[in-house]
Amino acid sequence: MSIDVFWIVQPSLLTVVVLYGAGIFLPPLFYRNPHVQNLVAHGAAMAASVAGIVLGLAGLLAPTATTLSISSNLPLLTFQVRVDPLASFFVLIISSVGLAVSQFAIGYVREFEGRRSIGALGGLYNAFLLSMTLVVLADDGFFFLIVWEIMSVVSYFLVVTEHEKPETRYAGFFYLIMTHVGTAFIVVTYLIFYQQTGSFSFETFGHPATPLPEGFRTLVFAAALIGFGTKAGIVPLHVWLPYAHPAAPSHVSALMSGVMIKTAIYGLIRVYFDFLGGTFPWEWGFTVLAIGAVSALLGVMYALMEHDLKSLLAYHSVENIGIILMGIGAGMIFQSYGLSNLAALGLLAGLYHTINHAMFKGLLFLGAGSTAYATHTRNMEEYGGLIKRMPWTAFFFLVGAVSISALPPSNGFVSEWLTFQSLFLSFQIPDVLMKIMLPIGAAMLALTGVLALACFAKAFGISFLAMPRSAHAREAREVPWTMRIGMGGMALFCIVLGIAPMGVIPMIDRITAPYTGVSIAGHVVSESGLAVMPGTGIGFASISTPVLAALMAILIPAALLASAALGGRLRKRHYKTWGCGINLKPRMEYTATGFTQPIKQVFSMIYRPTVKLETEMLEESHYFAKRMRFETHIEPVFQKYLYDPVVRVLNRIADRLRVVQAGSLHLYLSYIFITLLILLLWVR
Amino acid sequence: MESILITATQAIVILAVSPFLVGLIRKVKARLQCRRGPGWLQPYYDLAKLFRKDVVASTHTSWIFTASPYIIFASTLAALLLVPIFLSKVPLNFAGDVITVVYLLALGTFFLILAGLDAGSAFGGMGSSREAIVAALTEPAMILSIFAVGLTAGSTNLSTIVHKTALLQGVVTDPPPHLMALAALFIVTLAETGRVPVDNPATHLELTMIHEAMILEYSGRYLALIEWASAMKLLLFLTLISNIFVPWGIATEPEPVWMAFGLAVWLVKICGLAVVIGVIESMFAKLRLFRVTDFLGLAFILSLLAIIFFYILRG
Description:
A: mainly alpha; two-stranded antiparallel sheet; 26 helices; 5 strands; globular; B: mainly alpha; 11 helices; about 0% strand
């Protein structure tokens, strides 16, 4: 399907920029009334998101890419944007998540009224959305770096919204450093291109006059992987993510985890498939796949040990970025062997998981924000029984949990299944090593998937089920409808993406077709449109989520009818839970720590847990404990063995350098003098 | 029309045969203990009785507790409708492959874990926590072991695997990987269906339970649905083993005579496997929980080795 949509692209792009701009600059005008500020900021963001969805859809369906540019009088800089299928797809993701999150924010930021400037918060929020949109649209290296930096700095200010807490300041500082390390590597990537092609235009990056030498190409690959990988949160560059994402206000966390880290995925695909033309040795794809597999598995394992609901979700972002990279890595490997159909399939799986993760992670962060809003704590050991007090939030969180656990017929299932298939199809590769390595990746993916299930059974079960574990949870109340609608919208996106893959796959196919040279939508979606069957027409395997959903919709009522037929009318009595003869108290319930104890013990190689148990016995008898104190920690391996040594070395160097900067004016004047002398000698 | 008829027949066969397997294993165990054991129809009587009984639900529970039995029942049955039983090409084949079967079972496991936590009892939580680790270690092994066999057939769809293997008329093309995959799948079967040495279905001590601890709060028709679903899960695994590794006798075309023959052959095969499980349960003791993980890790490694060997032997 390709309709002439060129006339939609330009005005919708202009509308997006103008509306976000209004969201940035208008709220401060209403400084007397925070409520109006809230409505103006988030209303503008919602309207801009709707325009963004139109822009994204139009750009995906447009037969050719649209380029718009405003030249500036600064050297090297042109404000040039390009609306091609890849950029449009990410605009679509940013805008759809942005729409639901902005709706949620109208209710959520009321919590900050009186404590924070709503105008500033709302303005920064709009600036964040606008900068992300421009990052994916930018068609010029210099312009890209400017908006990328704005995105990083604006998100830093959003992270430190609650800067009175020391842990938030630490999280923000950590984030700021890591994101700039990443940006430095992206700068290196673009400078290599500039040095080789003499231009910052993405068009020249992709089609240089003389092709880049092999060594520089490898350098670009590595620099882009580190640079974008830091933003995406790949292991071992993920360490900032579990600090920064939870520290931000929840609607911002939803954007950071759901959308911002995806701009890094965009960057990687742009550099590897567009700039480098999709020709690379298999080692590159294998590196991406291996990093993805390790990130996925370690991400979910660390998530299991988190009892702060938002940190848990942040670690799951590491996991899901890993799954996305596994799809893309598999695609890259296939591309190296010239298996275009399979390369397109791997990319398709990765991109499908990208949009799915944006939806369910956004939804889950909004859910976590709602529970924090209602209970004023993020520690799930203090939740419990919230399903009775917050039925809507609980239901939406459950939809997100089922989707992220990839249970059929959810959207997560479709994209994880596609990833499995692209890994299993390795038997078409002529190299035995790769034939074996890809299924090992699939094994790691399978383990990741089931551990994610365990983690979300824990997150939902401990937070929402059984008895309230604290006064906070006992007094929780359902969040306002403004927030519920936002979550409902995200839940709807998840469900639609799950049962309508035949609508999504042709869209993504329009992105992958130019990079791989083949369109596979006709192979992947069956003629009836019901089933998804990759395998390039050989019918390797197939699924049909609409049929599975229909099957469940028939069998569940059938089970109800059968029970009625076999047992007559349901007679139900209510009685308290059996507690071995004593009254059950919340303290006797299973905790999140207890729930994950077996997993911690089985994988103690990775967790390296330390346990401290102090027992004080009764004086009368040595068999009865008076007081017990139990402490358990898992070792933060990457921080301890990778980051701390680097920080120590840096501090030592800085200490030495202090001598140079002694605070004496004479000394500084002599530095200037010496520098001048050297320069004079140099240029003569 | 024909496909709806075949699917409905398959559903009826599944529902009718599954409790029998549970009774058969109990009978074998009783005989090995020199007891006569309850009658062959006892599981059916139990289910009928449970359906008619009142339900006692805990006051602490939510709608999750009420909905879970139906979801577990429906997802297990849906998974079984994707598995070839008497006809190698099931009509619903296009709707899901082995990964779908595993994830449909995982859907049931997810809700069972939630239901175990819902009542707030420590026993339920304990069962849920243990089920989570057992599931985490078995389900990857299940996907990989069936994939190892699927490599020969070139598909992960169960019908394609079974159909192609059945057409080979008894020739095993890749014996070493298939044997490893069989061993892995058998271990998975013991673990997933809550059998000795992983779990003890007959235990009365809450501290040693896994599956039984999770459903401790269930009664009446809810318990009946869950028990029936567990019986179906047992049937599913025994069918997978028999039809993937030795599908011979299964109908390859939807001819009524051949399907009836296929049904009879299938019944003999799964009953044989049920007897094997009964004997194993009588011979071995239950493992300690943290020894179970080594046992399940073995299944994971075996299934991975099966795939590696397949490629190495084929070159």
